[in-house]
Amino acid sequence: MDDSTKKSLNSILDSFDAKREADRKKAERKKTEHEIFLDQFTEKAKSVICPALEQVAEILKSRGHNSEIREQKEGVDLEGRAINAGITLTIFPLGQHPRYPSQPDCPHVAFMVKSYENKIYVHERTMMPIRGGHAAIAGEYTLDKVTSELVEKHIVSVLQQAMG
Fold first, then answer.
1. Pairing between β-strand 108-114 and β-strand 119-125 as defined by DSSP bridges
2. H/E element, 12
3. Are 141 and 118 in contact, with CB atoms under 8 Å apart?
């Protein structure tokens, strides 16, 4: 092989290696940013979201309705599907739990991490036992926009649609 070909090959391979290294560093930086975001979400859930949900749960309980607040960590389920970190308030009107857990027919509000976009989305479900409703994403926010007022707004929206 002549020197010109060797130089060309080395130049191409050096360029390829540099791009691979840049991609690796970018992926590592993005992973680190997401880990930081997850820590920030956990703190926001503890200081803002959960207290607002707990206050609503107390009011619901005083009026004969049960509820459950469930937190979940980011991970993978048994079938290999991604699980987003989040916190969910599920409401059991008049204390009635769903007959079939795989077919939830109770209202809920969930604040979920949108994986690797470092945003929060809100999922609302307005279904009631023996009645229809909807289930959909009701908003997407940066972490700084998630306030107790926002949490309360979404809860009121779900309860208005489900029980109003």
1. antiparallel
2. helix 3-44
3. no
Structural tokens at position 98 = 């769903």
Query: What is the pTM for the complete model shown?
Result: 0.76
List, for residues 58-75, the tens digit of each pLDDT value.
999 999 999 999 999 998
Q: Report the number of secondary-structure helices (H) and strands (E) in the chain.
A: 3, 7
Torsion, Cα 67 149 161 132, to 10 degrees, reads -50
Which range marks the domain in which residue 147 is found?
3-163
By the 8 A CB rule, do 123 and 141 touch? Answer: no
Tokens of 57: 């749960």
Query: What is the arithmetic mean of pLDDT over 126-153?
Result: 90
Query: CB–CB of 65/93 below 8 Å?
Result: yes
Q: Residue 142 and residue 118: Cα distance in Å, rounded?
A: 7
What total of structural domains would you count in the chain? Answer: 1
